[in-house]
Design goal:
Layout lengths: L6 H4 L4 H14 L6 H11 L19 H9 L3 E3 L5 E3 L1 H16 L4
Antiparallel strand pairs: 1-2
Helix pairs in contact: 2-3, 2-4, 2-5
Length: 108
């Protein structure tokens, strides 16, 4: 199981970018990225951002709703909560940049 990223690094990244990175991560594992799988990946990798404020050990999937709509409107992702999410070419480019940031453990 992958461990969470360093909170000091990811707290400076927008929630939209974290979601894009998680879609990239799930798809990169050759899995379908449905809403539940995405919520799991987001909480696993970035627990402080995707947890309830009062109960940090529980994921809060509500934090995905508006950002997913915004990402679709910006044509960064395709899909819907009832189906699967994929990245558009613009989303893949953004995810690759984030992948470099997280691998190097510092913001570019």
């Amino acid at each position: 199981m992958e461990k969470a990223f360093d909170e000091e690094l990811y707290k400076m990244v927008s929630i939209n970018d974290l979601i894009v990175f998680c879609i990239f991560s799930v798809v990169g594992k050759k899995e379908k990225c449905d809403f539940e799988r995405l919520a799991q990946e987001c909480f696993k990798m970035f627990p402080k951002t995707f947890s309830f404020s009062k109960i940090a050990k529980w994921p809060d999937a509500r934090k995905l709703d508006r950002p997913l709509r915004a990402l679709r409107e910006k044509r960064i992702i395709n899909g819907a909560s009832e189906s699967f999410f994929t990245l558009t070419p613009a989303g893949e480019k953004a995810a690759e940049t984030l992948n470099k940031i997280f691998r190097q453990r510092k913001l570019l």
